Amino acid sequence: MDRQGGEMKSERLTQIVLDHPKFIIGFVVAISLFFIAQFPKIKIDTDPKHMLPATSPVRQYNDKVEKDFVLHPDVIVLGIVNTDGIFNPQTLKYIKDVTNAVRQIPGVIVRDVDSLTTVENVFSNEGELVVRSALGDIPQTEEGLSALRKSILDNSLFVNRFISSDGKAVAIFIPIEPTANGKEIADKIRALLPRNSGQNHFYLAGDPVARDTFGTEMFRQMGLFSPIAGLVMCIALWFMFRNGIVIVANMAAAMISIIWSMGGLIGLGFPVHIMSSMSPVFLMAIATDSVHIFNEFAFRLSEGQDKRRAILETMKVVGPPVFYSDVTTAVGFAALATVTIVPVKIFGLVVAFGTLVILLMSFTFVPALLMLIPEKHILKLASAHGKGEKFSPSLLRLGRFCVEKTKPILLVGIVLFIVAMAGLSRIHVNNNMVHWFKFNSEVRTADRVMNKYLGGTSTGYLVVQAKNEGAVGDPAFLRQIEGLQRELEKDPLIGKTFSLADYIKRANLVMHDNAPLFNRIPDSKQEVGQYLFLLQSAAKPRHLDNVVDFSLKTANIIIQLKSWDADAMKSVISRVNSFFVSHPLPEGTNLKPAGIAYFNMVWNHEVLWGMVSSFLWGLILVLILLVFVTRSFLWGILSFLPLLFTIALIYGVVGLIGKDFDMPVAVLSTLSLGMAIDFAIHFVGRFHQRYKEDPRKPGGDGWASYSPSHLKEALIWTVARPGKGIFLNAILFALGFAVMAFAALTPYITVGVLMAAIMVLSSVMSVIYLSALIQLWSRKLTPRA
Hints:
Largest sheet: 4 strands, antiparallel
Strand content: 5-15%
Radius of gyration: 33 Å
Low-confidence stretches: 697-704
Helix content: 55-70%
C-alpha cells in the first residue's frame, strides 16, 4: 500500500508539472538566481591545516610549538643550483642581490629571511666568540673564494641546510605572513630572478608554494575541463537522442544542482576547500542519471504514445528506480558527515544536497522541459530509437548470452574477484600534496631538485620537555639529543637535523681553535651555560630561540625531510621510539612531535582513514537501503553485489599498480558508493516491473509461480531496453570525464580515469552479472505467487 501510495503521489506531481511546465521552469530559474547571487561572497581555503578542526589537539599543539620557538609555518625555499659550484663571484652576487630583493616583497617576514648573507658564522678571536655574516663581501680572487668556501662548508650547521655538501646548491628560506598567498609571492620572486644566469638555475619549493599553486590551478582546471566535459556530454547526447531539449534538460539539471549546492555552501559562509571544489565534477556525473528518463521516453514515443502520455508512463516506470538510486547516492555521500574533519564533512553534505536537487529536477524540471518539446521534434526523437519494440540486435544478443552462459560468466567474475582481493591487500594509504602535480611540473621539479642537493623541503619537530628548568643545559641531556639526531640521520629520507646540541658543539669547537677533539658536547653544565651566554650575546638570538626555550626546560629538534609522504614522518617516530627503548629519557621527560610533516601524517591518518571508515559505514547503509527498496534480503544482497565487485576490482587495480590510496582516490571511493549502485537499482527495478507483466498473471502485484521461459524473456527485455539506458548513461559519463586525463593536476587525472572506469565497469556488472545471477538463483528469487 505504501509503495502504491508513493506511486500515486509521484503521478500527481507529474500531472501538476505537465499542466504548468513554464511556471515550474520559471520558479527553478528564480531560485537559481538567488543562489548565483551568493557566488561573489566566495572564500577559498587551501591550507591543509584547516582540514583538522580548530579544536584538534594536534593543531593546537602545533600552533603552540610554533609560537614558543618563534617558528614560521609558511616558508618558501628558493634554491640556486650551479653544477660547477656556487663559489664564483657571479653566483655569490646573485645570492646577495636576490636575498635583498625578496626582503622588499610585501608579505615576506623581512627580519627572518635566512640566507648565507643573513645568517651568522661563529668564529673565535683571542678567546672571544665572534659572529659575522657567513657571506659578506664577495671575494674576487681564487684564494679568497677558496677561503670563503672552507669557512662555510666547515660549519656543520650550514651544510645540507643552507648549502649542499658539494657546494653546488644553496637555499634561501623565505618565511611569509600567515595571510599571504604562497603562489603570488613565488610569482613575484620569479619576476626578480635574472633571465640570463648562465649555469645558475633557480627553483622555488616549500609547502606554501605547492599549496597555493594547487589552489589556483585547481580552479583553473575546473574552469577549463568542466565546460569541455559538458561539451563532450552534449555531443554524445545529440548522437543518442538527436534533440536539443534533451541536451538542455540533462545539462540544466547538472548546472542547477551545482549552482544550488555551491551557492548554498558559499551563502552559509563556508570556505571552498580543495575537496568541496571537486563537488561540481561529482554532481555533473550524478546528473547523467536523467538519461534513463530520456531513454524510456524515447521508447514510449517510438511505441506510438502521445507526448503527455509518454512522459506520464516514463515517470511511472522510471521514477521509482531514479528516486531510490538518487536517495542511495545521497546517503552514500552523507555518510561522510560522520567524519570529524570539517572539509570532508562539508564535501559529503554538499554533494548529498546536490544529489537531492538532481532528484527534484528529475521529477519537475526535466518533465517540464520534455513537455515543451515541439511536436515537429517528437517524430525525430522517436525515430532515433526505431519503431515499436525494435531493440538493438547487439543488446538482444547480449541478453541471450547472459541467460545462457551463466556459469562461464560467473567463473570469470570469481577469478577477477580473487585477483582484486590480491590487489586490495597491497593498498597503501598515503598522501603527498607535491605528487598532486605532474612529474615534470615546475613545483614538483623544484621539490625534487632541492631534496636532491639539500636537507629537504618538508619540516618536522621533535619537542623534548624536561621535568625541571635548566635540564636542557645538562651535557648528558644534550648528548642524548645528539645521539637521537645521529640515529635519525641514518634514514635516507632525513636530510638534516639540528638542535641546541649542534650550536653548543660549534661553540666548543671554535673556542678551541677548531681542534677536532673539541667537536663535541662539553663535559660540564657550566661550560654549556657559558657558550649559551656567548651565543645569545654575540649572535641574533632567533636561531637559538628556534631550538630552546628561555628556561632551558624544553628543546626542539628540527628535522628536514626529503619527502612529503606521510610515511616519512611515521618512519621518524618509529626510529625515535626504537632509540628510546635502549636510551630511555630521564624520568619526567617527554617527547612530542610537531611541524608540517607531522601534521600531514595526522591529516593523512584522520582524513583518509576517516573516509575509509565512513565509506564502510556507507556500504552498510546502502545494503540496508537496498533490502528496504527491494523488500527482500536476497534481492538486496543481489543488488549489492555489482557495487561490491566494482569497488573491489577498481581498488584492487589501484593496489596492483602501486598507486597510493590518497585523497583523490579516497574521494572516489565515496563516488563509487553512490554511482555503482545506481545501475543495479535500475536493472532490478525494471526487471521486477517486466516480470510482473506476465500476461498469465493479469492484474497481479506479486510474484507468480516460477516460469523459466518468462523469466528469460524478462531478463532479455531488461538487458535490451533499460540496459540501453544504463549503457548510454555509462558511456555519457565516461566520455565526459575521460577528457580530464589531459589535466595538469594528477588528482583530476585520477578522478577522470577512475570515474570513467567505475561507471563502465559498474554498468557491465549490473547488466551482465545481474542477469547471470538472477538466472542462476531464479528459483530462490522468484518462488512465490
